[in-house]
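thought: fold this chain, then report.
action: predict
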Amino acid sequence: MPTSARLLSLLAGSLLATASSAQVLNGSFEDPTVATGGASVFGAGSLAITNWTVVGVDVAVLSGSFTQSGITFQAQSGSQWLDLSGVNNSAASGVVQNIGTVIGQAYEVSFYVGSASDGGFFFPATVDLSIDGGGRVSYFNPNTTPNALNWLQFTVPFVATSTTTTLTFFNGSAANNFSTGLDSVTVTPVTAVPEPATMLAGVLALGAVARRRLRRAPSA
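observation:
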C-alpha cells in the first residue's frame, strides 16, 4: 500500500475513534442487579447505580417484571429501568453522568420516557434533560398502553463545547405522577470533527505531491 494510502487509512481510523469517543455507560441501568420483580431505591449522592450519580432526593432501579396496581412495569431494553420519581417523587431528583466528548463535534443523545397506565388511570411521564448544567428541557410521553409502561423515544442534538459533557436527567412529572420511566440512554456522533477533516485534506495534498515526485524521478 502506498505511503499516502496508509496515512489516509490510519487517519480515517483515528477520526472514527475520535468521533465515537462519547459513550454513555450503563445507559439501560442493568447495574446493580435488582432482584427479579423487585426495586432498589438510592438516595442523593449515591454511586450505586454504576457510572451514574443520584441527585435530589432519591430514584429507584426496577426489575422489568415488577408489578403494582395491576401494571407490569417492563423495561424498554434489557432487564431493568430507572424510575426517576423514586419514593418521594421530588422534582429535584435525577441522575447525572459525565461523558468524554470532542469539542465542536455534534452529537445526539437518545433516551426513552416511560408512562404508566392501569387501564383506568393514566400517569403520563415527563423527563427533564439538562446538558452541561443548562436549563431543564422537558420531554413528555402522552401515550398509553393499558396495564403496562408505554415507552417513547426522544432524540436531542447538541454540540460539545468541552472534552467532558454532563448529562442530567430529572423527574419532570412530580406534580401529577408516581412513576417516571427512563431507559436506554445513548449518545451518538452525527458529523465529522472540523479539525481532523482539515488534517485529512492536508494528507491528500501531501499524497498528491508525493505521487508527482515519484513520476518525475529519473530511472536508475
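thought: worth noting. The chain has one domain: 22-190.
final: C-alpha cells above.
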